[in-house]
Amino acid sequence: MIQSNLFQFEEKSDWKTVGAGVQRQVLGYDDKVMLVKVKFEKDSCGQLHNHAHSQVTYVESGTFEMTMGDTKKIISKGDGYYAPPYTVHGCVCLEEGMLVDAFSPLRWEFIDTDHSQYTL
Fold first, then answer.
1. What is the pTM of this model?
2. How far is it, in rounded angstroms, from Cα 80 to Cα 75?
3. Gap between the Cα atoms of 96 and 22, Å rounded
4. Are 90 and 65 in contact (CB under 8 A)?
5. What is the pLDDT of residues 54-106, one digit of tens each?
6. Please, which residues bridge with residue 103 across strands?
7. What is the DSSP string of 26-78?
8. Helix or strand or coil: residue 106?
9. Cα(61)–Cα(95) distance, rounded to whole angstroms?
């Protein structure tokens, strides 16, 4: 089994640039669940994509135009959404902000490590 440290401190956790105006910080995880913060500059995009993971997201700050399948909604601080597996989704940041994503199972590609030593 893989797992993160028991505690993660923002000032000691690296931010990784994952797109123009978009940065990701991986927080706690094990092989079943993962928590990730994503910072967006105004007008930056979370490109339309899909994945096999269930995703639940909380809007920590900012305003976003969220696309989920064929539906678009404006979401802002305090709102959230659920992206079922394989559902095409993405966003445009209308006002600088941060999303907090929870994935199940974890997103292996978000971890900078040799995965060969772990089994699911």
1. 0.90
2. 7
3. 10
4. no
5. 999 999 999 999 999 999 999 999 999 999 999 999 999 999 999 999 999 99
6. 34, 55
7. EEEEBSS-EEEEEEE-TT-EEEEE--SSEEEEEEEEEEEEEEETTEEEEEETT
8. coil
9. 9
